[in-house]
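Re: [ENG-882] Designed sequences occasionally contain unexpected residues at chain ends

Forwarding the minimal case from QA. Structure tokens:
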């Protein structure tokens, strides 16, 4: 299914969402970004989706970033609500209760890189390259790049990437923790990403939601606050139906049969 330059494929509990605008390197404008956010939210709320793979159509680009035609001739008063809306959409993806796995094929620049940084984690092909080149246009990242890249790769790396426009290749992305596995050949990327998604989908969905919530909250909280949240969520998991099934399956040496909803 393809609508508004966003294509969706479903395979059981796994959904693949593609930014489907290859003639312009899957560039994002506000309407496409809104559609992307809505689609991921809809899948996450469906009760049948346990993992989402986010990628771009073709091998040249995951997304080359913002559609510059939309930004032309905006003044500060017009630009501010556009940036706030984009940040809200990407924050919604970051807070998805269903894991979102970025499968990065080719370029992820500007808003495309910012989108990757908001996903639960990323896997990459050998052709992947990341960058925040906005300063070369007299701009700065506006969808969270100044904040998230520093948290993942450290402030010095973030400053260097943004101030010079230098790109991060696939191998360096893995070393920096932007990608969670070594790069694979382009033709192997989607099979690999789907294998990872299937592995995630075997886990208890309520446990996955709790893990995502705890990690996200902990990034902005003192350690003791994060530990208190972890204690509460862990206690709820111990008392929940998923752990009853999971422990029973472990003892019986069988695969657990978790319901989609806990």
């Amino acid at each position: 299914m393809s609508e508004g330059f966003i294509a969706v494929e479903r395979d059981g509990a796994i959904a693949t969402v593609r930014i489907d605008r290859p003639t312009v390197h899957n560039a994002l404008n506000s309407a496409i970004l809104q559609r992307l956010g809505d689609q991921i939210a809809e899948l996450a709320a469906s009760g049948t989706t346990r993992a989402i793979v986010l990628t771009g159509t073709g091998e040249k680009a995951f997304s080359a970033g913002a559609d510059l035609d939309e930004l032309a001739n905006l003044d500060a008063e017009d630009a501010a609500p556009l940036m706030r809306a984009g940040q809200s959409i990407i924050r919604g993806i970051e807070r998805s209760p269903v894991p979102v796995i970025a499968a990065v094929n080719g370029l992820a620049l500007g808003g495309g890189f910012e989108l990757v940084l908001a996903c639960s984690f990323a896997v990459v092909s050998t052709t992947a390259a990341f960058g925040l080149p906005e300063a070369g246009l007299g701009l700065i990242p506006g969808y969270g790049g100044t904040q998230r890249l520093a948290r993942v790769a450290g402030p010095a790396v973030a400053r260097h990437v943004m101030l010079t426009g230098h790109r991060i290749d696939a191998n360096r992305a893995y070393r920096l923790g932007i990608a969670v596995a070594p790069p694979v050949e382009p033709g192997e990327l989607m099979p690999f990403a789907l294998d990872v998604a299937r592995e995630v989908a075997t886990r208890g969905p309520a446990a996955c939601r709790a893990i995502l919530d705890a990690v996200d909250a902990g990034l902005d909280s003192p350690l003791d606050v994060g530990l208190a949240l972890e204690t509460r969520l862990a206690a709820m998991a111990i008392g929940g139906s998923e752990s009853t099934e999971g422990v029973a399956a472990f003892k019986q040496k069988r695969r657990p049969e978790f319901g989609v909803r806990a």
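QA comment: On inspection the terminal residues look reasonable. Residues 205-251 form one domain. Proposing we downgrade this to a documentation issue.
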